[in-house]
Write a structure and sequence with these properties.
Layout lengths: L10 H18 L11 E8 L7 E9 L5 E8 L9 E8 L10 E4 L21 E8 L6 E7 L3 E7 L10 E2 L15 E4 L2 E2 L1 E2 L5 E8 L9 E8 L7 E2 L16 E5 L5 E5 L7 E7 L10 E7 L6 E4 L7 E6 L19 E8 L8 E9 L3 E5 L5 E7 L2 E7 L1 H4 L2
């Protein structure tokens, strides 16, 4: 009887079977199952009492081209006031914000400048180092950090080694003198938060200045400083938002470069609509458009942050407390002070014209915040929570979940 069995295939054929199966997997499975899952992680970076600091406030965060994250803030040593003995402290992370070095003071290591006009008895020996703002050069990796002392003088320091060491401070207060012709200021402040580098290489830092009684933070107006030589020298831009035409005391401001190279400012104010003010310049220095209140960006009279996503032109992320003051009937109170809580993240895909995506990050007390983007598009949000500065790490899938 004839044997009907067929000879076995060569051994080399059977060795190829696993490879063939792997190659066929996309035909049997939706690729989406391999996509990254939504995630969010939180870490308290600057809790009150750490290193005997009474309270940490005014957060800022940047990421270098090598992926080093630098988180910095004011360390208010003895009390919670905007004025007092205040230092600038920094923490570094080289693993995407998972682990952080211990905090250390980075400014002001220059001539001590004392005098607190808000505290006539005892304030004469206090030094207020305030409003740190870092700007990263994406081409060279150099980090410039601007800060003020006693809201009266402005200094610049720089790092060439990922924030490990910093140069001696250089006084750049003269850059503010141009504003004296229109606003005879007694108080100046950078940012807070972070500055930006434009595609042209220009560095841009939002600033505000107040021209009332020395020590007072109002009345105020918003503008920018800019540098076209990597921070060697700084110049004053034009006033972007004045204290007029219904714009009440514009001050703390965030900046972002739009997909076409223009620069958008998002500004805090005390105005009747209780919305952020937005203005746009072709170059981050002058030619500012007429400021407009943006209906989707609420204003509880608190600093907010904005950052452009370099991997997705036209996409912007905004962070700020989403709260409005309302009366007993639920109607908004004009120029009301909403509670600083309910920190939320908003996403725009059309250069900030609309903000259709919104996600609450922290429902509790939450105030100032700053944003940075890692090279893998993970978002870092450094923000003031209850008696601490916390860090949230999340991906876009969490935001758009």
């Amino acid at each position: 009887m004839k044997n009907s069995s067929q000879p076995l295939a060569p051994f080399s054929f059977w060795r190829k079977i696993p490879l063939l199966l792997v190659a066929c997997l996309p035909a049997f499975f939706d690729r989406s199952i391999f996509a990254e899952q939504p995630f969010i992680f939180r870490l308290d970076l600057f809790p009150a009492g750490l290193n005997n600091v009474e309270l940490y406030r005014i957060p800022g965060i940047v990421v270098t081209p090598k992926g080093t994250a630098l988180a910095y803030c004011e360390a208010r040593l003895h009390d919670k006031s905007d004025w007092g003995e205040i230092q600038v402290h920094l923490r570094r992370s080289s693993d995407g914000g998972r682990q952080w070095e211990a905090p250390r003071q980075i400014a002001h290591f220059g001539e001590r400048l004392e005098g607190n006009p808000k505290k006539p008895n005892g304030g004469e020996h206090e030094q207020t180092v305030n409003n740190p703002v870092a700007i990263v050069n994406r081409q060279t990796g150099q980090i410039n950090l601007l800060y003020c002392v006693n809201y009266a003088r402005c200094f610049s320091i720089r790092s060439l080694d990922e924030g490990v060491t910093w140069s001696k401070p250089v006084d750049i207060t003269d850059a503010f003198q141009t504003f004296k012709t229109t606003y005879d200021w007694n108080v100046i402040a950078t940012g807070p938060g972070h500055g930006i580098q434009l595609k042209t290489g220009r560095l841009v830092v939002p600033i505000w200045l107040a021209y009332g009684t020395p020590g007072d933070h109002h009345p105020s107006a918003t503008a920018t400083l800019y540098s076209d030589n990597n921070g060697e020298t700084w110049q004053a831009g034009e006033i972007a938002i004045p204290n007029s035409d219904g714009f009440g005391n514009p001050n703390e401001t965030a900046a972002a470069e739009l997909s076409d190279g223009r620069v958008m400012l998002v500004t805090r104010s005390v105005s009747k609509p209780s919305r952020k003010l937005v203005t746009i310049s072709p170059n981050g220095a002058d030619g500012w458009s007429e400021p407009k209140f943006h209906e989707q960006l609420w204003e509880p009279i608190c600093m907010a942050s904005i950052v452009a996503m370099p991997q997705q032109p036209g996409s912007l992320i905004f962070s700020g407390p989403r709260s409005l003051a309302r009366n007993e009937f639920g109607n908004e109170i004009a120029a009301g002070r909403g509670k600083r809580r309910n920190l939320s993240i908003q996403l725009s895909h059309d250069d900030g014209r609309t903000w259709p995506i919104l996600r609450t990050l922290d429902t509790g007390p939450s105030a100032y915040s700053d944003l940075a983007i890692l090279n893998d598009e993970t978002v870092l949000c450094l923000y003031e929570a209850d008696q601490k500065i916390s860090l949230a790490r999340f991906n876009l899938d969490w935001l758009d979940e």
